[in-house]
Amino acid sequence: MEKYTPPVNPGRIDDTTAELKVGDSTLQLPTGAGASGEKFIDIRALRRETGYIAYDPGLVNTAIAKSEITFVDGGNGVLLHRGYPIEYLARECVFLEVAYLMILGKLPDDEERQRFSQLMNRNSMIHEDMHTFFRNYPEHAHPMAVLSAMVVSLSSFYPEFEKSEEYEPLDITATRLLSKVRTIAAFSYKKSIGEPFVYPSHRYRYCENFLNMMFASPVNDYVVDPVVERVLNLFLILHADHEQNCSTTVVRTVGSSDANLYASIAAGICALWGPLHGGANQAVIEMLQKIHDDGVPIATVIKDAKSKNSRTRLMGFGHRVYKTYDPRAKIAKETCEQLLAHLGVQDDPLLEIALELEDRALADPYFQDRNLYPNVDYYTGIAYRAIGIPPEMYTVMFAIGRLPGWIAHWLEMKSDSDQRLIRPRQIYTGPESADVASRSAV
Ligand code: CMC
Asked: What residues does ligand 1 touch, defined as CB less than 6 Å away?
């Protein structure tokens, strides 16, 4: 059995310090740098020594962890997983190899790959009793609601992990989650269209199995197109991890209370659902479809996205960390165009709108000044649509892809000696005291 012992790099502490003057006293704060040179000030002594706390809404300036999993250089559009560039992984690997890399820190050799694949097959079914849950959801339940509820339910059906003294990611957690989440996702789609579930099969590879569960039916065999299978692998790889994004931070936060892995991941799925995060992929396609159906001029879309009076944003544009083209978006765009050509989709109207919208936005000073570029969610939906995956499933696809990252971060957090219960402070601005005496009895 492989053991997980993540090598948490403590990050280099410099000889220099940062000085903070508060009133008459001066606090010396250690400074340091991570493996790729990103600088930090260690403020752990701040409140203890000065009584002050840091105010940082959105944690824009705050590192909540040291991590060895993923590096993002937002200024230069670089994304590395365990040191491997995303372009290399997308070109050379299948999703399961990248999942293995995320969780175990290395790409698998042939034997490891085979074993991982066998474990994946062994864990692919969900408990028969869980099928009744699906039946009781309303027909049009959003698959993200079903997915999060089903994942937290796994903790009741497979409680062994909670009892385990040591974390054995390959057998107990990683394979079970990776394999079963794929089955749950496909079942939630079948439920939404009122078709019987198609069970996973040991005959198929990971993505092939998913496509078969989605599109085969008792009356219709589905022949998996290897190009489509490759695109699916590639998109899942693009989503595999992205350091301390909203959902990963949620997974770490829930896990920091010692909640089990299933509960932590289910919470991450809920965080991912929001349209500012993973839900953007569904929002993008809905935006493009609306522009198409209503014949909205591109100039109007741009004007609305820039307006301070409108809450409209250009979905699939902008990123907290990338201030240049998202490298994942570049790969997704190329892949999307190649896929449409392979499928013989000529002049997809939504792709044409997306391309024109991108060109117009990138030429506009509003987007230039704010460094707003297409992000990973801008083009993926167009490809999913061509494969036949409906918009409500797009964020589910993101969740299947992000799973290895969530698991890796959860495990890394558990083994980090600096880790404490994540419990931020606040600046209270409410009333000092309410008038209790004047309240009459009810
Ligand atoms: N359309 C129009 N204006 C935008 C957009 C956009 N998509 N994104 C940011 N801005 C403006 C924003 O209004 C603000 O302008 P100002 O300085 O005049 O107030 C400025 O750019 C900075 O924006 P911010 O909201 O402070 O930046 P943030 O880092 O907090 O937000 C974001 C990042 C991703 C939430 C935001 O860019 C956004 O809402 N994008 C659209 C939703 C989206 O595509 N999300 C997917 C993100 S990538 C996948 C993932 O990892 O989840």
From this structure: 58, 242, 245, 276-278, 280, 305, 313-320, 370, 372, 375-377
